[in-house]
Predict the structure.
Amino acid sequence: MDLGISGKTALITGASRGIGLAVAELLAVEGVRVVGASRGGSPELEKVAEKTVRVDLSTREGATSVVQEALAALGGIDFLVNNVGAGDADHLSLAGFLDVDDDQWQRVFDLNLFSAVRTTRAALPSILERRGAIVNISSVNGRVPTGSPVGYAEAKSALNQLGKRLSEELAPRGVRVNTVSPGPVTTPLWTDPAGFGGKVAEALGVPHSELLDVVPRQFGASSGRFTTAAEVADLVVFLLSERAANIHGADHFIDGGILKAA
Ligand SMILES: NC(=O)c1ccc[n+]([C@@H]2O[C@H](COP(=O)([O-])OP(=O)(O)OC[C@H]3O[C@@H](n4cnc5c(N)ncnc54)[C@H](OP(=O)(O)O)[C@@H]3O)[C@@H](O)[C@H]2O)c1
């Protein structure tokens, strides 16, 4: 299938590992010139990106300046993937609502919602000019109650609604906006012992590997397994492509069957 995107340009946030890196790698294979942003960067991203930007996307300044850097490197932006999200495990409390203060709510919303708001606002003039496309990476947690850190599911729900708003406003102007909502994905978020998965295992008092064995079933995944980052990237890149030319404003689940509603 010819995706028809060779020669286009893309900005991907949170691109040094996990889902963002998988999207950057696949877009590069398809001939898209990529700028990838994260705080630390990675050799893997350096390999496929035309430029990497090291920036804290949870700040107003970072989420905006990354677009100026991408515009300078690429000359314009066709595709924006608002992927950055979740948050640093060591700053995310697993406590219940009463024990979580404003700081966590603010941090989680800054990274999972406002980074997308700010980056999109800055990139939109160029995306409009090029009649491009945006994909926001949300989560099944935006739809189903889970034990995710307080504020995360709420921020992803708001991100879902942002996608709807943007699509309503931008579809008539030739820009497509879609949301991708994964269930558990085998990224460092789960697999790194120092990441969120390791922290959950520690809190439950079980070995990390045992936790990983049961997570998909705990989430209710009919397939019984994690999604891979490459599988999420396949969906994201398809949605950005010409093959998805009339797909607007939809929330696409890739969750092994966690969501049961028809
Ligand atoms: N993995 C899952 O199970 C899963 C499920 C549903 C939805 N999601 C969503 O998918 C997206 C990607 O998740 P992932 O699993 O790929 O995460 P990940 O493996 O933890 O990777 C996160 C990426 O974001 C970057 N990042 C984190 N905080 C940042 C900040 N403040 N400023 C700039 N970059 C930052 C990280 O690089 P640096 O640390 O170098 O900054 C890294 O490149 C998130 O929105 C997450 O909510 C993930």
